Amino acid sequence: MALSGAAALCGAAAPPPIPAAESLDALARKKGLRFGTAMPAHALADAGYSALIARECGLIVAENEHKWYVLRPSADRFDFTPADRLGAFAREHGLGLRGHTLLWDRDEYGAKWLPAHDFGPRPRAAAERMLRDHIRTVASRYANQVDSWDVVNEAVDPATGELRATVFGKLLGPELIDICFHEAKAAVPGAKLVYNDYMNFGVEEATHRQGVLKLLEGMKARGAPIDALGVQGHIGGGVDPTPVARFSAADQRDWRAFVDEVRGMGLDLLITEFDVNDRAMPAEIARRDAEVAALAKDFLDLMLDYRELKQVLVWGLADRYSWLQGTAPRADGLPKRPAPYDADLKAKPLREAMAAAFRAAPERRTWA
Ligand code: G3I
Predict the structure, then answer these.
(1) Which domains, and CATH codes, for the chain?
(2) Tens digits of per-residue pLDDT, 132-158?
(3) Which atom of ligand 1 is nearest to the CA of 67?
(4) How far does residue 64's CA lie from ligand 1's centre (Å)?
(5) If 0-12 CB within 10 Å is exposed, 13-18 middle and 19+ buried, where does residue 253 land?
(6) Is 38 helix (H, G, I), strand (E, B) or coil?
(7) Is residue 117 helix, strand or coil?
(8) Mean pLDDT (whole number) for 268-273
(9) Which residues, judged by CB distance below 6 Å to any ligand atom, belong to the binding site of ligand 1?
(10) Predicted local distance difference test score (pLDDT) of residue 238
(11) Mean pLDDT score of the chain, rounded to an integer?
């Protein structure tokens, strides 16, 4: 069919914008949920992407700007510039702000100077002081804006299920995690405090899941002030050695057993970093997008069934901002399509799958 008038001049007609009442956050809110995305400070310069985030989301999380390696250029100096710019964007657009993370307990993703830092003659006390000071300083700064913090991220070693042997882990021992949560609670008593990790479904993830359960059980038994588990939700093999293209019945059963245990501890749940790694999926875009959407829908339907699930955040709203582009490339070298919007900011079947999952979700009490 021949195009006419303006459509012929402009090429393919742009799809009509999604009405505000149908944004992913609006659909989520109808069920007591919130929807958001990770955003890096450099994306603030991208007007189209920023506008898309403002339209679709109810909250953002700083992709890297709350991490030690950005906030702490040296042991005695903080730099809040990029984090504050994201905070200002959120405020300007009426978006909530999540905090990620007060401690990413992996030395390779921490402050560059930390592994060689001299903690002096009483290293344990000095390390505890530094950690408490960091948490108090950062959490207090955003006390009026951040309503939930990933207090600790990825402390469990997926290979062993034990806590990782990091700079702080070695100096403070198993008390490390409780120290972080108690300090965060003292600094921002009204914020929700979250342990965040990438344990996933699949038999090869069993040790990681068990390790996380052991950590959470210990925290609850000792009275550490934790409110929720952040399930990162990098599905499809996001950070795993093996790509996973489907959510089998056996995997769903095991995953439910894991989530049931978390719920049994009285914890709420968040999906904090959702995306679908398509590296094991077909090259053809229509088929690939359909498989991404189907896997997402299976996972989200199961998770949304839990009324303890309070927020869903994607780790990038559009493919062009996905960390997966630079991680474990596809064998055919094609760009990945892990996000709800493509590189040209066009909505994909994944967006529709997420909207459908929110529409089908049971209502829940919002996170106070
Ligand atoms: O800012 C520098 C830039 O100056 C330099 O030119 C460039 C060259 O490589 O690197 C830039 O820093 C990169 C930074 O992202 C900002 O883009 C780092 O190398 C890169 O390692 C960093 O990756 C981030 C990664 O965490 C490590 O912090 C990803 O963007 C971010 O998506 C990823 O997020 C993590 C979550 O925090 C925790 N869960 C897993 C998730 C994915 O790995």
Answers:
(1) 24-360 (3.20.20.80)
(2) 999 999 999 999 999 999 999 999 999
(3) 28
(4) 6
(5) exposed
(6) strand
(7) coil
(8) 98
(9) 63-64, 67, 109, 153, 198, 232, 273, 323
(10) 57
(11) 94
**Residues 6+ away with beta carbon under 8 Å from 158:** 198, 199, 205, 207, 208, 211
CA–chain centroid gap for 51, Å, is 21
Closest ligand 1 atom to Cα of 238: 42
195 membership: H or E segment, kind and range: strand 192-197
Of 238, 224, 144, 120, residue with least CA distance to 177: 224
What are the structure tokens assigned to 261, written together? 């245990």
pLDDT of 17 > 90? The answer is no
What are the backbone dihedrals phi and psi of residue 128, each rounded to the nearest 5 degrees, phi first? -65, -40
- Which token pair is 62? 């700083």
Which of 323, 324, 336, when mutated, tests ligand 1's pocket best, judged by the most ligand atoms within 8 Å of its CB? 323
What is the length of the chain? Answer: 368
Instruction: Tell me the whole-structure pTM to 2 decimals.
Output: 0.94
In 3D space, the residue among 198, 213, 206 whose CA is nearest the CA of residue 104 turns out to be: 198
pLDDT greater than 50 at residue 20: yes
Q: Which two tokens stand for residue 276?
A: 């679908």
Q: Hey, whose CA ends up nearest to atom 30 of ligand 1? A: 323
Closest residue (by CA) to atom 29 of ligand 1? 323
